[in-house]
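#struct-pred
JK: can someone run the complex with iron/sulfur cluster? inputs below
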Amino acid sequence: MENELTDLQKRVLELKKERNALILAHNYQTMDIQEVADFVGDSLELARKSAEVEGYDLVIFAGVKFMAEMAAVLSKDIPVYIPAPKALCPLAAFVDSEKVLEMKKQHPDTPVIVYVNTTADTKSESDMLCTSGNAPEIVESLGVDKVLFGPDSNLAEYVRRRTGIEIIDIEPRGHCYVHNQFDIAQIELLREEHPDAVVIAHPECPPEVQDAADMVGSTSMMARTVANSPKKKFIIATEMGLVHQMQKRNPEKIVIPAYEGAVCRQMKKNTLEKILYILEDLPEDHLVTVPEHMVAHVRKILEQMNKAPSTVEVLVAKTS
Ligand code: SF4
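RT: done, structure tokens with the ligand placed:
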């Protein structure tokens, strides 16, 4: 670790060891949390990691609730705690199991693919899961001509354009308020100021922003591109937590946020103080559980997703 650790970080690390705890953190967490985490990644990477937690006595998941639910399902008997139980993703809230069932009724025999940014309740009525890193591949892998897809309408459009498959939005209004804020005028202005920069956007951004970017992909694809590309300057259209992480890990490069206001307030509800509180008290109201009747199906589709291919490497190769 490059920085001197704070007293709070040192205390967290000490207790983490004593408790034999594993800390998983999403790329959008603040740097002080990322620095004490055992693993930092995007939803897919964190889901994969959650299935490999054997040997630990507990997991602390610094992310939003649907992510911690995935960890609780995949980690089997190992308890999963979330620092901020009220860290709910507004995108996930656009769709629930009732909405999925209603759409299934209207479109019988059409597979339901939902983005990993959904609650366990929604997943429990869905056929398959995808992430922003593998959505087009997952949809294509079904070999069908139409699918029901949700909850993010911008990601749906990204998949529609890449696959040519009919994508029926489960909820056309579904969007991530953080990524929906990026606009083409910001990108164009930054391009004028930095003509040598590579513009990378997340597929939750509006389609016109995706069109204006040089590359579109998941947060991990973005992080790997900045680390591995020979280019020196990047304009990044995603949440600020990742932008800070990229700059810190690649001090020789210039990482420019496409919009500094792109901050996920739900992700930031997790704090180092709350992580310490969990390690000290193991509070039951921070324990993440999924209703028993949902667990088997949700685990099955999460395991399928974890084994599915990802576009990350392909997209990285395009930048070199
Ligand atoms: S950045 Fe968007 S999709 Fe991610 S947790 Fe926040 S609101 Fe949800």
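RT: quick notes.
Confidence is low (pLDDT under 50) at residues 311-320.
The domain at 92-176 is CATH 3.40.50.10800 (Rossmann fold).
JK: thanks, will look after standup
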